[in-house]
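Write out the 3D structure for:
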Amino acid sequence: METDGAARLRGAMVSLRELTTRDLEMLRAFVNDPEVMRSSSVYTPVSDVQQEAWFKTATSNHHAVWFGIEDIRTDHARLVGTCCLVDIDWVGRVAELRVRIGAKEVWGAGLGTDACAVLLAFGFEDLNLERIGLRVWGKNVRAQRVYEKLGFIVEGRLRRAGYINGSVDDVVLMGLLRDEWRARRTK
């Protein structure tokens, strides 16, 4: 097993890396694309000033870790999205997973799944988390299947708890425990 930190944050198709100010233009393009943001509850285009303010807040938050997702399937790795663990409770050892693939041309290629698998390993092994949860829209069955494939279990449903794309939707709560994650890795 490789011990290099960068190598450990590498999957079959992606690597996770620190976000830098050089990423701001691309990140702003992602969040300003209504199609990319269609699974977010609120879509509001952001300015470069707003993007910089978000970046400073996100990268200095001690209860979150953010990564850029790079597509490494070619010789020229490029940023295709972000993933993070947020609302980290260091005492309770829990966090919430979020992922966004902003490069539409790679949608459906499995990069988000690969990034989540790498992020889960980081959360359970490096951060010593006991539980990682997430929230997903009830109508987003495709995402739910991806999370189930990664080992997440539906823990509950908040009925009509959000408004997205012009209608109300349920919020599905999913979670994965470290022991469950380990058991899947040994199979």
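The radius of gyration is 16 Å.
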